[in-house]
Amino acid sequence: MAVESWSISATPMPAMASDPTTSVTTSTLSDEHQLAALLDALGERARAALDACLPSAATLPTRLHEAMRYSTLDGGKRIRPMLVYSAGKALGAPDHRLDAPAAAVELIHAYSLVHDDLPAMDDDDLRRGRPTCHKAFDEATAILVGDGLQALAFQQLAQNPDLDIDPAARLRMILTLAQAAGSRGMVGGQAIDLESEGKQLNIAALEDMHIHKTGALIRASVLLGALCADDVDEARLAGLDHYAKCIGLAFQIHDDVLDVVSDTETLGKTQGADQARNKSTYPALLGLDNARRRADELRDDALASIADLDTRADPLRWLANYIVARKR
Ligand code: IPE
Ligand code: IPE
Ligand code: MG
Ligand code: MG
Ligand code: MG
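# magnesium ion complex -> structure
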């Protein structure tokens, strides 16, 4: 798959203004706690936005809507909405504009998980500490849940009145999410993942798969947040885009690491699932230590590309660290 625009090295890095790890790794403990509490509150805010935009479980067809709510509302870490809010805040976007894109990226993500768990894909029984959608409901419902969530995501961007930006910016956001979700983004990455089961990918092919299946939506999350600010210049967007590409790849490397080193209860999904399905992963190809090292390098690269932003970007810095240190 040709992926010129997704390549991490394709975007030149802005000059590094200072120690890339300032602010978070050198901040005081109370700063860390304050940031963690802020991110937690943003996760709750995203849940409320999702709750508000999802049809109630009493809306016909009730079983479908119950399953859409089951698959979206509880248990997720909400990292993608947190990135939307954090990128927007870093550039001074008003909070009320960020709810629709935050919900939209999480709806696409929730749909991707429901389909990822289907028997035809990863065939998993456990997600977010509960039976997967097709286990709690049935396979046909799980397919339709994904379809419904995806459409609702675009409806949010197209229609939510709180997204009070000019029509050209709104259209750019819709295009950004469509490209990230589609066959040249997340869905394309999922296709590569399935084709690669039982094969030994080389490192470039593995990176390409991860950049698409997971990186694309993380990249869109940051861009969508940034696009909610007024008068964002393209150089600033490019710096944030580089940050997002780096943490997107680091995110999936760490997901692969957790599949090896964590346990099912902590993860809320079945530990060892990658090995059981003969997936191509970073630990399988490079070993655990090298995989972890690569994720840390990418975090540092991400931090360097936003080093010139002021303290309003601290939540983005905190998230870059969290993504490679999280336990689940
Ligand atoms: C899991 O994503 C799927 C991947 C893209 C690796 P998350 O780890 O963000 O899952 P939730 O939303 O917290 O459940
Ligand atoms: C899933 O990757 C990526 C998407 C859902 C797009 P994984 O298959 O590794 O995710 P988990 O480990 O099941 O959450
Ligand atoms: Mg998968
Ligand atoms: Mg999976
Ligand atoms: Mg995984």
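# post-check
Residues 111 and 146 are 4 Å apart (CA to CA).
The chain is about 65% helix and 0% strand.
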